């Protein structure tokens, strides 16, 4: 097994007497050398592969307009009922990879995805795969709350209606109530289900979007920085919710908050310059990361 | 791992500062032990008084370093190597403070004893030299973040323990032969005991160095000796 050679098992003295300290700063910003290093790695450091995964992805490349490659040969398994956090600096490809998982990249002109992406063993990029059905199985919550300009009730009922999941009104009522309860919003809005969703507070709107995502009984929920626009209390509510949702769903979350990744995820994947560098148990990543780049990022050593 | 190179210079300084303080505390403790042993060997009760009095400086450093580490955890949420650095400092400082206490105990014996019999003197001096050397090397490994050396030093604690056992038996024989030496012998035994404990604390610090550098917790992982009964 040829893992990345740039592992983090040496410590050097930080004092000025140490000659290596003077030029190590230059090493840290030598992007070309880092890219060479990453290019030659055959798989990420840590434990990227699982038995019986929910998502199985191998050698995933993503190109925007052919000229620009955003992701280079990502190999990653995502387990059932786990929260996996994807972290990394801006432009590292974590959101791009997340959007591959329910083919949100299809909507971007010139975007090409290659490699293997299997959901429960089925190729989600197969010709016969209907992206609309895929997105019902793999839901998504975005950074900014984006409720439809409809009532709270209709926001949640929208998915079950278009997918024809219910036979009658009372079943739909049950799904709406159940979804709002799971999203921890029901008690706050039960008396005004017909009020517009856009009239809620930011945190409530985001929970409404989560309710909307879970109303169609997805198997996986993708979250792209779901709390970056929220205050700490709303963030805590949603983090609590994510932990409860884990019982029924697989959750992939992209976050810029490392504390958040550390708090809510079981596994953490670190992306850098379009490469998946390290995947491991969150406990390990935040106490003893194996790769120097991961260590630099989570300890705030990026210039 | 480098301590520097954070985007935040302030953070670099905080980590550097807490690390320097812990090394300074190590230096102080080493000095205290050296003086305590000298006071004992040379029957210098004045020096003994000085060492016993100076222990407050060790204690004060422990409190200051703990406070600085608490601030770093609260304000910076250190992760990975930084987290291990802060944790290993918090733990090392506790052991350093205990070493300071043991040095104080030895110093107090220097104040109270009238002078030791020469044969006991020699044995104790021997153990004292070994423990001082072990502490010196420990602090060196700590400063250089040298896990390999730390591992060797931790293993050498077995020799200190063996030496202590030999000395205890020697003292026992002594006391049985001539009960008039019991008082002296007990004094020596207490000092030897303090030295042996300092060996244990040094070993602990070496284990924190290994944790800091390699992220491995090697405490309580000694393999039982061959043939030892390990029924749970």
Q: What is the fold's blueprint, element by element?
A:
The complex is a heterodimer of chains A (303) and B (232).
Chain A: H1 19-28, H2 31-39, E1 45-46, E2 55-64, E3 68-78, E4 83-87, H3 94-100, E5 111-119, E6 122-123, H4 131-137, E7 138-141, H5 152-162, H6 169-182, H7 186-189, H8 202-214, E8 220-224, H9 232-245, E9 250-254, H10 258-264, E10 267-272, E11 275-281, H11 282-287, H12 292-298
Parallel strand pairs in A: 1-11, 4-9, 4-10, 7-8, 8-9
Antiparallel strand pairs in A: 2-3, 2-5, 5-6, 10-11
Helix pairs in contact in A: 5-6, 5-8, 6-8
Chain B: H1 9-41, H2 45-76, H3 80-112, H4 118-144, H5 147-177, H6 182-214
Helix pairs in contact in B: 1-2, 1-3, 1-4, 2-3, 3-6, 4-5, 4-6, 5-6
Q: How would you characterize this protein structure?
A:
The complex is a heterodimer of chains A (303) and B (232). With 303 residues, chain A is of the alpha/beta class. Chain A has a domain at 52-144 and 219-298: 3-Layer(aba) Sandwich (Rossmann fold), CATH 3.40.50. In chain A, 36% of the residues lie in helices and 22% in strands. Chain A is built from 12 helices and 11 strands. Chain A has a 7-stranded mixed beta sheet with strand order 1-11-10-4-9-8-7, sandwiched between helices. A 4-stranded antiparallel beta sheet of chain A has the order 3-2-5-6, with helices on one face. In chain A, helix 6 (169-182) packs across helix 8 (202-214). The model of chain A is unreliable at 1-27 (pLDDT under 50). Chain B is mainly α and 232 residues long. Chain B has one domain: Methane Monooxygenase Hydroxylase, Chain G, domain 1 (Up-down Bundle). The longest helix of chain B is centred in the first third of the chain and has 33 residues, at 9-41. The two termini of chain B are 39 Å apart. At the A-B interface, helix 1, helix 10, helix 11 and helix 12 of A face helix 3 and helix 6 of B.
